[in-house]
Amino acid sequence: MTQPDVLIIGAGMAGLTLACALAEADLQILVVDPHAPPAPEQWPATFDPRVSALTHASENILRKLGVWDAMTAHRVAAFTGMDVWDANGTGNIQFGAEESGVTHLGHLVENRVTTHCLFALLQQCANVEFRKLALARILENENGGDAAWKVLLSDGCEIVPTLLIGADGAQSKVRDQLGFRCRTWAYGQSAIVTTVTTEQPHDNVARQIFRDTGPLAFLPLRELTNSKRSCISSIVWSLTSADAQRIMTLDDAAFCQQLGAAFEQRLGKVIAADKRFCFPLTQNHAVDYVLPGVALIGDAAHTIHPLAGQGINLGFLDAAVLAEEILHAHEKGLPIGDFSVLRRYQRRRKADNLLMMSVMEGFKRLFGTSIPPLQVARNLGMAFFNRHTLIKQQILQRAMGLEGDLPALAQPGLIADF
Ligand SMILES: Cc1cc2nc3c(=O)[nH]c(=O)nc-3n(C[C@H](O)[C@H](O)[C@H](O)COP(=O)(O)OP(=O)(O)OC[C@H]3O[C@@H](n4cnc5c(N)ncnc54)[C@H](O)[C@@H]3O)c2cc1C
């Protein structure tokens, strides 16, 4: 394929989802990434330290694409409650699946399970090709205007796709080489992630404490044997970068002790921890997601603080909305790289992403403050929300991804709806 209809740079969760969603049409799709998602026989015996909380909307997308059953056969963990509290005071909000009339609030899934299952589906599609290569350079758009871009891959091959997709993550080369402007701010925070075992079972409740140094989340995972109440959680501990560096150097016993204390021993002592990984946190939002013949999706378009676990959920929606717009255009015989087609995708996704990013930024600032009147106000606010079922339901609908301009793939319902 040197002139595919769609060239997707990046086989992360967003890029693979777009490829799978487009594969039903008679489009030739090429996906490139220097790393193929690892197959289960290559997985270490430990849990993947990268875990995502997937919303109902994301589950619907993965179900309708036909990968959800394969994911559950590997390992996913439904959570049925959420407990959020303020370290400085008594503020506390709890959400339960039952009171909201749903069986679960979401699922915790190791990223390698999702990428592997999407990749396995993609390999069955005759019109999709994967090459283990990187984008080297985007060359001049020789014809100008709406014409295709010429892309140089790391093996020296030149590709001229009708539509180029940047799904190459937070450090996107597609975005940077094409000069997409971004609004970026570093939080001065890093997140430590790992898998831990606690003294007490988590009972499938996702818990998050807001400390003034940053939020700390314990996300419930299933036991490997699945035979007993699980005491295994994935943690995301956001700290100032200096504190994170210090904590990364602690030995396991000291790390478990400090982690348990920061979490107010809500699940008893932390008795074991896997290898730790540390990620710097930045918020980044491309001013535009599209140019004629090019679109950005997922972290290439936006990165968001992990405190609400929304990053890839927004990325799945980007992929589903863009696929919907491309497929509609293709059905009508319109060129798929047409600026008007891509602008519709941008219009549908940008406002939604911006809203989620602004709300999360507001939370981060509100809980990052040590100004006493604001601490009192947020504690009162949490107590107020916790008493008002209707407001809680609205927050939950948004957190489950079931509000806003949903593409057909993300809506509950039959596969035939899509
Ligand atoms: C600590 C932490 C916790 C998080 N928790 C959650 C959560 O609970 N829920 C949630 O929804 N989100 C969460 N996120 C965010 C989520 O992990 C990201 O939003 C998601 O991984 C982005 O997926 P993506 O496919 O857009 O990009 P990526 O996963 O970054 O994939 C990009 C792909 O592009 C490839 N690539 C890069 N450069 C090139 C190139 N030049 N040529 C070809 N290929 C290239 C890479 O190899 C990679 O495979 C969390 C993030 C962090 C840091």
3D structure, described in words:
- The protein is α+β, with helices and mostly antiparallel strands and 418 residues long.
- It has a single domain (6-184, 282-411), classed as 3-Layer(bba) Sandwich (FAD/NAD(P)-binding domain).
- Helix content is 34%, strand content 27%.
- It is built from 11 helices and 21 strands.
- The strands form 4 sheets. Strands 5, 6, 13, 14, 15, 16, 17, 18 and 21 form a 9-stranded mixed β-sheet that branches.
- A hairpin with a 5-residue loop joins strand 5 and strand 6.
- The chain is globular, with a radius of gyration of 22 Å.
- The model has no long low-confidence stretch (mean pLDDT 90).
- Bound molecules: flavin-adenine dinucleotide.
- The site of flavin-adenine dinucleotide has 33 residues, from helix 1, strand 3, strand 13 and helix 8.
CATH top level? Alpha Beta
User: What is the structural class?
Assistant: alpha+beta
Q: Which overall shape is indicated by the principal axes computed on the Cα atoms?
A: globular
| First-residue to last-residue Cα separation | 28 Å
Estimate percent helicity.
25-40%
Counting structural domains, the number is: 1
Instruction: Characterize the largest beta sheet: strand count, sense, and whether it forms a barrel.
Output: 9 strands, mixed
CATH superfamily: FAD/NAD(P)-binding domain
How many helices? The count is 11
CATH architecture: 3-Layer(bba) Sandwich
Radius of gyration: 22 Å
